[in-house]
Amino acid sequence: MASADWTKPLAYIGLTTVAYTTFKLLRGASIYLHPSTLTKEYNPTGKNWALVTGATDGIGFGFCQELRARGFNVILHGRNETKLQKRAKELEAEFPATKTSIIVLDVVGVTNAIDEVGSQVRETLARNGGELSVLVNNVGGDSKPYTMLEAYTFEEAQETLDKNAVFMLQITRVLLPVLEAGRRGIVLNVSSISAYGMPFISVYSASKGFVDTLTRALEAECVAEGRNVDVMGLRVGPTRTSAFDVKAGLFVPNSRELAIGALNRVGCGEVIAWAYFWHSVQGVMFDVMPRSVLMKITAKKMRELKKEEEEKAKKR
Ligand SMILES: NC(=O)c1ccc[n+]([C@@H]2O[C@H](COP(=O)([O-])OP(=O)(O)OC[C@H]3O[C@@H](n4cnc5c(N)ncnc54)[C@H](OP(=O)(O)O)[C@@H]3O)[C@@H](O)[C@H]2O)c1
């Protein structure tokens, strides 16, 4: 029996893969050429406020710097009052034309005391003028990265969910009416490459999946109701921060570079977009690679990161 000729089908599969990858790359690249509508849409008077959660370090502080550079007054949220005041002073020194305020609240074990954040923000606006027009839901992280699910204690698992998912949901619920009271507002939710579902960070991964779904649902809800609040998710890949002490490079921006990318994506037309161009290139690779291969590579990387963490911990 003559053997089947696979040349044609394989050529079609190859061509389709190349065409799909090219299309994704071109479409992805167009998002990075679109000018940001952040200032025009959400701070036309130059008097408006942005609230950033987890603002004392890493990407959150990068957001604060970049929002102030674009003329926004900033409310910094965090858990440590001394650190918040220190960071607020740094911002005031770097950008004297804009104002700061702080909100102290631990995101872990959040209770209905969070409802008071609404009145705290309204008081800040009443005292200083301007509207709350931007909410950056940035706070997040993994309480026990690079381990198996059962290695988490009950508290560590809950903490990770609170940090990434529960607090975001609750503060957005509380602040949506404040955003809506202004001319136009936007909620920016920080997501992660880990939303693909990655081994050894399963709780964190799942919580970022929650962020993506909440973003899509809330965006659709606001559109359906014709509300004056936009909702957008910003997907983030490896970024050098206090929590992730890796060498910066083309594929690893620092916190400020990431924040610049994120704010530049506002108005790009996507509900969820990669904040930083080179992360989007990694995203395309993730989309086209067979999942089994991708997860093999990811598991290896996670084990390496765990080893690095353990070695660093030994030196401390
Ligand atoms: N870095 C990355 O490679 C990367 C990749 C993908 C996604 N992301 C996402 O980007 C966001 C920022 O990450 P990052 O790397 O910039 O984190 P980071 O450097 O650890 O900063 C986290 C911020 O959140 C605050 N925070 C932590 N726990 C808190 C708590 N219980 N209550 C109140 N505030 C708390 C920290 O405050 P303290 O100063 O008091 O600790 C800090 O201001 C997160 O949502 C993360 O999932 C990061």
From TrEMBL:
TM spans (from-to): none
Any one cellular-component term (Gene Ontology): endoplasmic reticulum
Gene Ontology terms, MF aspect: oxidoreductase activity
Pfam families found in the cross-reference section: adh_short
UniProt keyword terms in alphabetical order: Oxidoreductase
The family this protein is said to belong to: Belongs to the short-chain dehydrogenases/reductases (SDR) family.
PANTHER family per the UniProt record, alphabetical: RH59310P
Protein's name in the database: NAD(P)-binding protein
Organism field: Penicillium angulare
